[in-house]
Amino acid sequence: PGELNPRITNGVPAKLGQFPWQVAIMVDSSALCGGSLISDQWILTAAHCLKSGTNFGVVLGSLIYYDYETSVLTSTKIVHPGYNGTTHQHDLGLLKLPQAVTFTDTIQALSLPSTTQPADSFDGDQGIVAGWGTTSDTSLEASEYLLYVEVPVLEHSECVHIYGSSIVTDQIICTQSTNGESTCSGDSGGPLVIVDSEGTPTQIGLVSFGAKGLCAEYPTGYTNVAASLAWILQNTGL
C-alpha cells in the first residue's frame, strides 16, 4: 500500500477536557506529532517523532496544537533502543518534562495496561484515537483543532495478511478504517485508547504507521504499548 504515513481523516471535533491526556509535540519547530501524558512528568510518543529531533514543544490541555500559552519546552528524550524505522518495530519513545505539571480538568494522565498482553488480545475492541494531523488523503495542512475517530481494532491475523508478518508482529496493533474514518500524517505518536465497562480509559497503542495516500482505506498500525510495558516502567520509574 505504498509509503506508510498516518493522520485523522473524517474526524469529529473534540471538546475541551474530553482527552485531557492528549498532547501536541512540535519537533524542532517544524514537524507535528501527538503523544500522551502518562504521569505528571512523562510523555509517551512514537520513536520516529523523536529520533532526529533536539527540541520539543509540548502543548498540554489544549484543543489547538499551536497554543503556545500551554507549551512546555524539553530536550530530554529516550528512544527505544530496538526501534527499527523500516519494520516499525518498537516505535515508541519518551519525553520528560522539566518539571511536574499540575493536573486540572483539561490536563490528566492516561492509564497504561496493567500487564503485558499479546496484540491479538485487543481484537474487536472499540478504540478511540485523536490528533491534529491532516484531515484527508489530499490535504497538506494540519487540522487546527483536535479531532477524534472511533475505530475498531482489526483482527491481528487480518492485518498480518495486509502488511506482512515482518511488520505486523506482536509489537503491532491495527485498526480498521470505517466510513473513511482513520488516522493519517501528523497524528503519529498519539494514543489509541479503549474504555472499559466502568468508563476507565486505557492506552493500548500509539499511532505508528498507515498507508500514505490510502489512509482512509488501509488499516493503521500502532505500537502495542502492553508489549513494551516493562521498558516504559523501567525508564520512567512509574
From TrEMBL:
GO cellular component entries: extracellular region
Database matches in Gene3D superfamilies: Trypsin-like serine proteases (2.40.10.10)
Keyword ATP-binding: no
InterPro entries: Peptidase_S1_PA, Peptidase_S1_PA_chymotrypsin, Peptidase_S1A, Ser/Thr_Proteases_Immune/Dev, Trypsin_dom, TRYPSIN_HIS, TRYPSIN_SER
GO molecular function, one term: serine-type endopeptidase activity
Gene Ontology biological process terms in this record: proteolysis
Family annotation (CDD domains): Tryp_SPc
Keyword Hydrolase in record: yes
Location(s) in or outside the cell: Secreted
UniProt similarity note: Belongs to the peptidase S1 family. CLIP subfamily.
Protein's name according to its UniProt entry: Peptidase S1 domain-containing protein
